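Quick one:
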Amino acid sequence: MKVLFLHENRPDYLAESLFHGLRTILGQDCVDVPRFDSMYAPLTPRIKSKVRGQGFTLYGLLDDIPQLAEERFFWRKDLASYDLIVIAHIWEQWATVWDLSRVVRTEQMVLLDGYDTTAFFPYWPTGLRRNPWSYFAPVSRYKYFKRELVGEGHSHALDRFLPKALRRWVPMPRNAMPISFSIPQEKISRNGVAKRTRLFPTHIVDEEVAAEVQGGFFSSTGSDNHFFTEEDDYYADLRSARFGVTLKRAGWDCLRHYELAASGCVLCFRDLDKKPATCAPHGLNESNCIIYHDYKELKDRISSLTTQEYVALQEKTYEWIESNTTVTRASQFLNDCRESPAAIDFQASEQA
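Output:
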């Protein structure tokens, strides 16, 4: 399969992780337009300063393929040679959808939405903030992959106007497709309980828990206040901890879930039972993580675990993260692109 990956060349964990997987699988048959600069080695200090999360985990991992420069030049001339055209950053690239809709087959193009908002393009939840013509872009024709997939009127930002009793009657868009973040296989490190000297990592994203843990470091969502400046130090800290605290941030799906699990921390996920089944992350439940609602409950749950129970939970954690590598996600994505949206079982994906 040959894939054209159109994007805005800016930070977006969903687009970046999916591209990493597609490139790993397809090699030069995955053509990024423009060149996805942050994904290639070496990651320069200047680029690193512009990306999220200090440039950890996803960035600077791919080898450049110089001959793709010829594919990128006048790429529109080669549209017919691609089996699949992925348009990432749909909120910025809606005009490209409109343009290409005139010249490519409907099944040839798919859309990617990595925004934290639960609304589908163009229904921005804070009201009209874009070109009015964007409301006429033919996005409903194409499979629309979204991680913050909630439904119940959120898809059209109707949650601002309709009571919940009425919102549940608003159907999910027929072109909706589930997707989530993923992590490169090389970031997964198996490390048993014997080498874990602490309960939690230094950086704790739950403010209540951070306040209770000696030396705990908390930074609010979107903050540029980081404890670690080097990736090796960050992962060494994660790998020293038995448990990793996480929760809904700007959206339910956060790269931190995957970083903690890849480091062998048993996930402690605050209010996970409140997450809609259709929304990423998928496959997390009481069999592979600890669900809690406040610090006391978390402390009690952790204290009651035997070593054997901890080891079993950690093994389930590794099973979950192994099913969420960038290569696995890209493979699922390619398969889903071949299926009709109606064939995707949201509940099954949640139980997987």
